[in-house]
Amino acid sequence: MPESFGGRIIYLLQQYGPSFAKGAGVSMWLALVGTLFGCIIGFLVGIVQTIPVDKNDSTAKKILIKIVKFIFACYVEFFRGTPMMAQAMFIYFGSAAVFNINMSMWFAAIFIVSINTGAYMAETVRGGILSIDPGQTEGAKAIGMTHVQTMINVILPQALRNIMPQIGNNLIINIKDTCVLSIIGTVELFYTTKGVAGALYTYFESFTIAMIIYFIMTFTCSRILRVLEHKMDGPDNYDLATADTLTHTSGMYSYRERKDDRE
């Protein structure tokens, strides 16, 4: 074992580089899949939480909506108010002890990350939907759109752009928080680092490597998501196409003329 700090870092990378890479791959995979399913859960819960209750609705519908909203509110508050490590222990070991449900380690890991992310995303989606001007919802209903059609075609596309930074933030948090899944035996980056550090008593060097790997993963994802946000913004300037020559002014062009030019 080299005596210098840099020498020990190089030695660990030479001896355990593939193990670090495999652990980092597992962490990234769990974060990506967990964030994806968490976003799906969050969108569903967030949309349900913003379902309007009209005074003309039947009593049964009002009661049903209130019950569903109450259940979802309890879910959000519970999983936002407890640490993921405790949730992992409760779900993985508790499901086997109480309900005799033996989850596989990988299913439990994805499930835990997904429902935890879903609780945070639910509030993000709810806030994103409420941030859209109510006049757009009223306009959509005025032309005969149902609540579902209004959400899909008018509200959610705009809300998605508003909540994109938070989706990226949840992904970055999940990359780091997958380390708590080592408590149920998931061999991700943190679990691998503990094994290397314990075998050679190189805790400082091993976790220095782990921190650098975590930073590379989070920084790369952050840059990619920033580019995606700019793509969703579209160009700064637009040309309005119109087929009506009477409305053709500066900043507009004739759709037919432009089409002829391309041909």
UniProtKB/TrEMBL annotation:
Presence of keyword Transmembrane: yes
Domain ABC transmembrane type-1: 24-225
InterPro entries the record matches: AA_ABC_transptr_permease_3TM (IPR010065), ArtM/GltK/GlnP/TcyL/YhdX-like (IPR043429), MetI-like (IPR000515), MetI-like_sf (IPR035906)
PROSITE patterns from the UniProt entry: ABC_TM1
Main localization, broad class: membrane
A Pfam short name: BPD_transp_1
Annotated transmembrane regions: 28-51, 91-113, 203-225
Gene3D superfamilies with a match to the protein in the record: MetI-like
Membrane topology per record: Multi-pass membrane protein
Organism superkingdom: Bacteria
Compartment list: Cell membrane
Keywords in alphabetical order: Amino-acid transport, Cell membrane, Membrane, Transmembrane, Transmembrane helix, Transport
Tagged with keyword Nuclease: no
Family of the protein in this entry: Belongs to the binding-protein-dependent transport system permease family. HisMQ subfamily.
Protein name according to UniProt: Amino acid ABC transporter permease
Organism ancestry: Bacteria, Bacillati, Bacillota, Clostridia, Lachnospirales
